[in-house]
Specification:
The structure is a homodimer of 349-residue chains.
Chain A lengths: L2 H5 L20 H15 L2 H4 L5 E5 L2 E10 L5 E2 L2 E2 H14 L4 E12 L4 H18 L3 E9 L7 E11 L15 E4 L5 H10 L16 H10 L5 E3 L5 H13 L2 E5 L7 H10 L13 E4 L1 H12 L8 E7 L6 E4 L5 E3 L13
Parallel strand pairs in A: 5-6, 10-13
Antiparallel strand pairs in A: 2-7, 3-4, 5-7, 8-11, 8-12, 9-11, 10-12, 13-14
Helix pairs in contact in A: 2-5, 4-5, 6-9, 7-10
Pfam family, one (chains A, B): AIRS_C
Family (chains A, B): Belongs to the HypE family.
Protein name (chains A, B): Hydrogenase expression/formation protein HypE
């Protein structure tokens, strides 16, 4: 229990209370909020020090840093909430360099009037995700904006991690002949959010795939340190992310539609909603591009991990000065899988 | 020039254009925005790699990490804007551990309809502050929320830095007998913002003191590695920050009102606005608590730095199990300088 609780023993009213402007003032109310929610749930020595920064020892090496703002709407959705998502999203961005994520920071922007009970649920879920991932939230910040100047809660998380010796993964390293893999079905997260927004009901609830992928990545790089690219296909989905990688590496890609795993219920919902699942966001999926010689070893280790059971090879990298992503369709034809042009799914993460 | 510009040569309309939902979609419009603003102004190799994370080498040692959300209103104010502030705020939070700040990340939450010309001004100012500080913005993220769900722009920055060997600064290390110093006048930032909000005009414009303090800190720790506490008195001002430190260290403090530097125009504005300058935010000031034996050396080095010309000793740390901050007033009386209770100045940073 921190010094703040000793001095301010009043409980925060997390049942009936709401966020008010004093919770962002730097004074007593903010100290209470921090103690009754953040220090309580995140529960680690670095946070408990109550300094404006967290200090920890690092070994010499290659460090990565990544940041992600989370503005998803609704805040609670089938399979997760903004709290868990804010942990998974940044753990994954760090892990996509092959790094082992070490620590997270969290910046909250709260809207005046937001129920403290909802904030507590979110912080609790964030703490759970952080503990499960073994990546503690060691420092943070809270701001409050007036009612109508925000939308409940926005959470910006930043992560740092260390890349194992010999691993060098980057979006510009895909080479013709490389193989493209994914760890599972596409579009689950985006469809879960859209169904929840539209109040659609299906026979089975479609849940977000929100998950931390760093333990999967650790096993992949341990069997194949020469993996070229890893990226999580979030906003814009598989199609947009592959286009980014193709452009960065100045290569083309050829996919086989029949090999891209999509759940039947996600397919059906996409048809109903007028969405293309290849452009729909994922939050527990990764694209891996590796030399053909490593593909089997990578696929095997993916399939033996709980988050890679449905892993599959979906295509190859080819030479193409126009960096087109092309797909052999289920009917044997071909199509260019282009960048997403406009906004397909706003505030999906 | 990055791959994105090669492929999407259309210019972003930063004269007439506005932020729209597509700028957060993960697609083409977002890539254009990132390239035409962030990559252009922040201009460094790590950002230009276009990965979802930045990688850099670190030496073994003690690292610090700090994060700060910036929701200041108005976005532009006398002496600065949210962009410069977002750099200074986090550079300072890192530096207050005695660390040398190395890298920054930046997460933007933009409101639909926000003028791109204003965003460009902000990014340009952020880039300038980052270059002047020598702390590059190496990775970032952009989200867009619907009109009425945000307030122009919020910026969350996170910084990492390395603490020099032998330096150990923390809020719980103040000891009775220690000396309390500040590097200059109190309340300038908060009064600049409030005057600007209230459209107050004074004979001289009161400007924010927004500045990066890490070079000042580096000189201070080089002459006195045994400094006990450093903290920047932002939200809640000098009074609240001293109360935090007193509580963390379980000590009391005694200040002399006549020694606390306050500009006459800030004093006058505070009287007009009904504010107590001791509770008003600063963005280029620090509190230093060090052993009495080091005080002269620290003071001398502060006074010889452009950001410490008005440095002064304002009081001492004393034994006090109640952790009270007390002040000998200008009239020879005494008063307890308590925590700020409510919200004095909303959205001041």
């Amino acid at each position: 229990m921190s010094a703040v609780v000793k001095r301010f023993p009043q409980r925060l009213d997390t049942r009936q209370g709401q966020v008010d402007m004093t919770h962002g003032s730097g004074g007593r109310a903010m100290a209470q909020l921090i103690d009754a929610l953040f220090v309580k749930y995140f529960d680690n020595d670095l946070l408990r020090q109550s300094n404006d920064q967290a200090a920890f020892n690092v070994d010499a090496g290659r460090m990565v840093m990544s940041t992600d703002g989370h503005v998803i709407s609704p805040l609670f959705f089938p399979g997760g909430d903004i709290g868990g998502l804010a942990v998974h999203g940044t753990v994954n961005d760090v892990a996509m360099s092959g790094a082992k994520p070490l620590y997270l920071s969290a910046g909250f922007i709260l809207e005046e009037g937001f129920p403290l009970s909802d904030l507590e649920r979110i912080v609790e879920s964030m703490a759970k995700a952080s503990k499960e991932a073994g990546v503690p939230v060691v420092t943070g910040d809270t701001k409050v904006v007036e009612k109508g100047k925000g939308d409940g809660v926005f959470i910006t998380t930043t992560g740092v991690g260390i890349v194992p010796e010999g691993v060098n993964i980057s979006g510009d390293l895909a080479r013709p002949g490389d193989v493209i893999l994914v760890n599972g079905t596409m579009g689950d997260h985006g469809v879960a959010i859209m169904s929840s927004r539209e109040n659609l009901e299906f026979e089975t609830t479609i849940e977000s795939d929100s998950a931390a992928l760093h333990t999967l990545v650790a096993e992949m790089v341990s069997v194949a340190p020469d993996i070229h690219c890893l990226r999580d296909p979030t906003r814009g989905g598989l199609a947009t992310t592959l286009n980014e990688l193709a452009m960065q590496s100045n290569v083309g890609m050829r996919l086989r539609e029949t090999d891209i795993p999509i759940k039947p219920e996600v397919s059906a919902a996409c048809e109903l909603l007028g969405l293309d699942p290849l452009y729909v966001a994922n939050e527990g999926k990764l694209i891996c591009i590796c030399p053909a010689k490593d593909a089997k070893a990578v696929l095997d280790v993916m399939k033996s991990h709980p988050l890679g059971e449905d892993a599959v090879i979906i295509g190859e990298v080819v030479e193409d000065e126009h960096s087109f992503v092309q797909m052999e369709t289920a009917f044997g034809g071909g199509r260019v899988v282009d960048w997403i042009a406009g906004e397909q799914l706003p505030r999906i993460c």
